[in-house]
Amino acid sequence: MENILDDEFVIQMDDSPPFSWIKQAPNRFMNCSAATKVSQLCVNAVGNAFEIGEMVRDVLGVESIEISDTFYPKSMDPECVPCIVSYSGQMKQAINAVESYERKGIVISSGGMIKNAARSRGWDYISLPKGYPSRFLFPELFGCLLAIKGKSVAIPDLESFLERNLPSEISANNESKLTALSLSKQSIAIMYDRHSYGLARRFKTLFLSNSGTKVDLVGNKDELSRTENKSSEVKLISFVSDLAIPGAVRIGGFPYDSTTLEGYVKNELIAELSSLYFGLLKGFEIELFDTQIE
User: Fold this and answer.
1) Is-contact 158 265, C-beta < 8 A?
2) What is the tally of structural domains in the chain?
3) Do both 142 and 171 map to the same domain?
4) How confident is the model at residue 8, as a pLDDT?
5) Cβ-count burial of 83 within 10 angstroms (0-12 exposed, 13-18 middle, 19+ buried)?
6) Around Cβ 24, how many Cβ atoms within 10 Å?
7) 93 in helix, strand or coil?
8) Last residue within a domain, chosen from 148, 181, 209
9) Which of 172, 192, 275, 280 gives the lowest tally of CB atoms within 10 Å of its CB?
C-alpha cells in the first residue's frame, strides 16, 4: 500500500474536520459538576456514548460506575445515581427513562426534548456542545463523566503530543501515521484486559467507522491463537501491560500504559488519528455525520 500520508493534500489537513476537532482535544475535556451527590454512578447510554462510558469504567473501576446500554430503570442498581446520556436529546427511550426513574439523577445532552424532561423532574442537566458526530465526542463525555466522579483530565504535554501526531507532521516522526502504516497489510487484533476493554472496543468502532476495517478483540492467548489460525497475517495491538506478546505493535511510546490516565487518553487519541490515516491509505470515504440518533 502506497504511503500517501506525507503528500501535500494530507499535510494541509490539520485545520480541516475531523483533524481540527482532535487538535482541539486538550481544551475540550469538560469539567462537569452536579448538585446531586454521587457515590456510585449508573450510566444509561447507547452507541458511542455507551462505549465512552465503558472507557470511564476502565479508568474508575466497576465499583464506581455501572454502564447499561438500555434506558430501562430496572436494569440498574437502585442505589446508583442514574445518568442518562443522549447527545441528540430526542431519543424517546432516554426521555421515558428520565420520566420513569423514581429518584433524581443527571442528564447529559446537547438539548432536545430531554432537556425539558430533566428540568421538569428536577434533574441536574449538563449541556454538551453541538456540531460534532457523536463518535468524536470523546473529550467532552469522557471528561464530564470523570469529573462527576471527582477526577479531572490534566495532561501537561497533551498539546505537544497531538502536534506530533497531526497530518502536518511527517510519518517518520508521527506515531499515529506509523501505526496506520504498520497495520496496512494485515488483519488487526487487539488484546485487552480489565483496564482496557472499553479502549479496545473504541479502537474497533473507530477503525470500522473511519476506515471500513474490521478489528478482532481478544481477551487471552487462546482467543489470540484462534484469531491467528483464521489469518496468517495478524497484526496485534496489546494493551495488556503485564504480558509481552512477540510481534505486537510497538511504535515510539504507543501503546502507552493504559493503567495510567495519561497513557489511556493518548492511546485513545492515537486510535482516532491512526484510524483516519488508515482510511486515507485505503481511499475510504469517511462520513462526518451520525447515521443513527443517539
Assistant:
1) yes
2) 2
3) no
4) 97
5) buried
6) 12
7) helix
8) 148
9) 172
Instruction: Give residue 275's identity as a one-letter amino acid code.
Output: S
State the residue for C-alpha cell 463518535: 135
Residues 90 and 206 in one domain: no
Question: What is the secondary structure of 108-121 as a DSSP string?
Answer: EESSSHHHHHHHHT
- Residues 92 and 144 reside in one and the same domain: yes
Same domain, 101 and 192: no
**Three cell numbers at 292?**
443513527
Residues 78 and 185 in one domain: no
Say how far apart CA 122 and CA 113 lie, in whole Å.
15
Amino acid 78: pLDDT: 73
Check if the beta carbon of residue 242 is closer than 8 Å to that of residue 194: no
Contact 248, 239 (CB under 8 A): no
Interacting residues of 229 by C-beta distance below 8 A, sequence separation 6+: none
Q: Name the helix (H) or strand (E) containing 127.
A: strand 124-127
For 89-128, how does the pLDDT look when each residue is reduced to its tens digit (9 = 90+)?
A: 999 999 999 998 888 999 999 999 999 999 999 999 999 9
Q: Of 125, 130, 91, 127, which is closest to residue 106 (Cα–Cα)?
A: 125
CATH number at residue 172: 3.40.50.10490
Q: Whole-model pTM?
A: 0.94
Question: What is each CA distance from 224 to 69, 124, 125, 188, 192, in whole angstroms?
Answer: 27, 44, 43, 11, 11
Domain of 255, in residue numbers: 156-282
CA distances, 71 to each of 59, 66, 220, 290 (Å): 23, 13, 31, 20
Are 76 and 163 within one domain?
A: no
